[in-house]
Specification:
The structure is a homodimer. By secondary structure, the first copy, chain A, is mainly α. The first copy, chain A, has two domains: about 5-85, Winged helix-like DNA-binding domain superfamily/Winged helix DNA-binding domain (Arc Repressor Mutant, subunit A); about 90-230, GntR ligand-binding domain-like (Four Helix Bundle (Hemerythrin (Met), subunit A), Up-down Bundle). In chain A, about 65% of the residues lie in helices and about 5% in strands. Chain A has a three-stranded antiparallel β-sheet with strand order 1-3-2. In chain A, strand 2 and strand 3 (about 80-85) form a beta hairpin. Chain A is globular. Chain A binds a DNA duplex (30 and 30 nucleotides) through helix 4. Chains A, B: InterPro entries: GntR_C, TF_FadR/GntR_C, Tscrpt_reg_HTH_GntR, WH-like_DNA-bd_sf, WH_DNA-bd_sf. Chains A, B: This is GntR family transcriptional regulator. Chains A, B: Pfam families: FCD (PF07729), GntR (PF00392).
DNA sequence: GACTATTGAATTGTTGAACAATCCGTCAAT
DNA sequence: ATTGACGGATTGTTCAACAATTCAATAGTC
């Protein structure tokens, strides 16, 4: 009876949903949220004692959480000095955009193999951005823009690409928060996003890729330029 | 006097060379080497007590090392059960090849901006593979092939791409070690590698990219096919 | 015999304390 | 202003303890 039951496989697919998680992971989640929301300025030192006391976890558990975030490049670790909120260099920002361009344009190129629901997610992100723009909710415009690009990367249908993209965007937020008017780097691209989404639904993948590539030309130089003046 | 001395900058560039490293990192290095060299069969459980005793480190330090390797997907962590050497599924192998194809073809496309030394590294990897093939040293043929693809990815001139590629290839080795005759998956591609390298030195980037894409068509289906029969 | 419940040993999860190693600011000396 | 020594504070690492959980073996039930 325990052979290949058709329903059992459906259950097994949801196996990962009930993955229990330890304290270190949860601590890392909390810190990660604070980091990507810009509550901690780059360069800030996170002392084991104070953070541990604030979250009521032991130093050992906290250090495990720190390791995770260091591996995700949100924190940097200096031996015998502690962990600090990462401060991205101009080279880092340029590098992040290089990687983004590679992943996203490749994803669009392989979009013809993606199912319609995946493309619908892209469209939805654009719509949410447009509505947020009408409300003049620039904060939400920014996160909708992030979701748009996450959705673009998802066209590759690869768990690993999704994961890399998640990390990449989290890291990029460190750069955005360091600047004075982050809105300027999301609002102007609403139109391009719409065009790309429409091209995707129309099946014009080559054109979508070209538009995306042009977007990166302007967006990356703009951000790098702005980031250069510390 | 401590202003912008021309030599001081040269020194500062070598700053990263003296990064001291803690015990956890070194433990992770040791375990990583054993993992990618196939000394531990996938599915093997690494008990904190025995590994800690073997390496003479405390449980806490060992757990920090485990976290790093879990983050690199070389180990998997099951709550209250321990860490195990990862066993890749067929989907994992397919996903790894999807990501490789994206990164490597994109890297080749942007190869025109890479300096000649970076391309020379590709050629060198091919030559080392060819010489190892003459010696019938199939082990070395395999690692030379890995170096070739690492060098291809390096054409993107991105620290992050290099890092992702390193992890990706380490993960792939888990799949190779699980198979009976790993040689079959490196040797046949020596010719293609040579062709791609020659096209790169000749500046024929589009053709190089097309050849690489074709390589992935055959290589990925071959490996997935072989991996399906457990 | 097949299935379920219970028990207990073994392992992991987490904490707290301890000590060594190192960093950093301070102050004195030159 | 530079150097050197001192001392407090922080991190690096280990150890011991206990709670939580798994796993295998046992016994019990139909």
């Amino acid at each position: 009876m325990t052979t290949t039951d058709p329903w059992m496989e459906a259950l097994a697919a949801d196996r990962e949903l009930l993955e229990r998680t330890g304290t270190a992971e949860r601590v890392a989640d909390v810190l990660r949220r604070h980091l990507i929301e810009g509550r901690l300025l780059p360069g800030t030192r996170l002392s084991e004692e104070s953070v541990g006391r604030a979250l009521a976890v032991s130093r050992n558990t906290l250090r495990e959480a720190f390791r995770l975030l260091v591996h995700e490049r949100l924190l940097v670790h200096e031996f015998h000095r502690g962990v600090f909120v990462r401060t991205l260099t101009v080279d880092d920002v340029a590098d992040l955009y290089r990687l983004r361009r590679m992943l996203e344009t490749s994803a669009v190129r392989h979009a013809r193999t993606a199912d319609s629901e995946t493309i619908a997610t892209v469209v939805r992100a654009v719509e949410e951005g447009e509505q947020a723009s009408l409300r003049q909710d620039w904060q939400e415009v920014g996160t909708a823009n992030m979701r748009f690009h996450q959705a673009i990367a998802a066209l590759a249908c690869s768990r690993r690409v999704d994961e890399i993209m998640r990390q990449l965007l989290a890291e990029l937020r460190l750069a955005f928060h360091a600047m004075s008017r982050p809105q300027d780097f999301h609002g102007p691209y609403l139109g391009v996003n719409r065009v790309i989404a429409d091209l995707l639904t129309a099946g014009e993948y080559d054109q979508a890729e070209r538009r995306l590539d042009e977007y990166f030309d302007t967006a990356s130089t703009q951000l790098v330029r702005a980031y250069e003046q510390l």
